[in-house]
Fold this sequence. Notes:
Distance between the termini: 22 Å
Number of strands: 9
Oligomer: single chain
Amino acid sequence: xxQTRALTFASATPPLTRLPKxxxxxxxxxxxxxxxxxxxxxxxxxxxxxxxxxxxxxxHHFQRTFTAVLGVSPKQYQxxxxxxQFKAQLREGATVLSATFDAGYGSTSRVYEQVTGGLGMTPxxxxxxxAGETIVYAVRDTVFGALLMAATARGVCRVEFGDDRDLLxxxxxxxxxxxxxxxxxxxxxxxxxxxxxxLDAHMVQGAPRPALPLDxxxxxxxxxxWRFLLRVKPGQVVSYGELAQGxxxxxxxxxxxxxxxxxxxxxxVPCHRALRADGSLGGYRWGLERKRVLLEHETRGGGxxxxxxxxxPVR
Length: 315
């Protein structure tokens, strides 16, 4: 793991670590064109040699460059786009069988093996808008605004800040319109209120980050980024470049930033501790002011000492 740095908001200087040369703009544009080609043919068989020919490169050079630019291999990118098409068809009302073959999976047994983790539930349940899935949630007001926490039987799947409690709940309903969404006070299955108390104590009173079970849902690359962030301690920060190095993709700085932005489990997965190389805040899904306050609070010693969270097996 690269050395994390104590947090400062003064004129921070970039780390002296020599990073590999970034791909040229022309090469980035070429890889983006191939990515568009993959997306347009996600349901087809796309051997590496075919994609390399499309890029006018050798297979080895193409594989290495595509991964550096996109943050994932061509195969992983196609898998993600195929899954996205499969999910879109299910949402539009297609049967599991037709969506399976239209997305190029070949058989229903293969689709259940390969995409259940990415969906977070079975394909039939996702098609039904989460029917059969029980998600317990709670919303409360905090010093950072409204905070929603939601959990499946596996663990916390969402922690989100917002300015409107009703809007946070509406977003959860939009994602899973037919799931059983149960307010915490109406269910004895999950100790969600106690979990929110522990999270609030961590954010405001300096208690350790609670060791809650996490049900993380994302691509293999996103999971790598999020797992790395779990090792960055309060009062420390890591640049997007250092994060990319730490997961073994030193050229995937932009993709690392995108993965941080895709995190839906605020604070418990501390993406707020990732900054630009010059020490500036970069982006934050829930607003830069919240990111700034969280970091300043941790700098003053208010972040406590983290307990490692319990992760559901990586999906």
